[in-house]
Every structure is written in C-alpha cells, then in structure tokens.
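Support request, please re-run this one:
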Amino acid sequence: MDKKKIVKKLSEIFTLELSGVIRYTHYSLMIFGYNRLPLIDFFKSQASESLAHANLAGEYITGLGGHPPLGIDNIKESYKHNIQDILKETLDHEKKAIQVYYDLLSLIDGKSVYLEEYARTMIGQEELHVLEVEKMLKEN
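Re-run finished. Output below.
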C-alpha cells in the first residue's frame, strides 16, 4: 500500500469537502423564492455533512502519518443564484466528489479493508446525493 499516494488523495478529499462547506453555506444564504425554507435546510445540512466528511478524511490522513492541508479547493463564483443554477453547480460538485472517492478506492482496492469500507461508504453517500439533486432538477 502506497501511503504517500493515499495521503495525497485523502488530502484532495479533505480540501474538496472543506470547499463544500463554504459552497453549501453560500448557497443556503443565496436562496430566494417560494422554496427558500426547505432549500436552506437542505444546503445547511449539506454543509454540515461536508464538514463531517472533511474531519473523517483528516483523521485518516493523520492516522497514516500525514498532515491535513490548510487550503481549500478553488471555488468559482458563477454569480448565478437561481435555484436551477445552484442545483446544477451542486450536482457538478457531488459528481467530482464521487470521482475522487473512486480514485481513492482504486489506490487501496484489496490492500486495506478499513480504507476500502470508508471509500465505498463515501461513494454510496455521494451517489445518493447525486440522485437527490437530479430529482430536484427534474421537472414534472
């Protein structure tokens, strides 16, 4: 098992999840219209979950002898704050997360049960998020 590569991928996950905290907090503040209240709760929940995911990745980083980075992913401001645009940006972020967790899984496949279980659990959670956001974007 190449710990350096795994720590590097976990660090990527850590920064991606921390950027999710900022992204989702921002979205929760920028929601307007008749769906405002349930969407605010949804995005605040997503922000909290991203923080929990970042903390978990950080625990694995330090457990493997690494040092969690202080940076975050580059978050581009689109200045498009209608609900559909925000949900599309959310979908892109979630799909990126899925890919990074799959990358981690490919690095550890068959080499570490606890890291495999972690990666698979995170992939499952992110895939469920994608399904939910896709449903939110779907028109009747």
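The CA atoms of residues 15 and 70 lie 8 Å apart. Helices lie at 3-30, 36-63, 83-108, 113-137.
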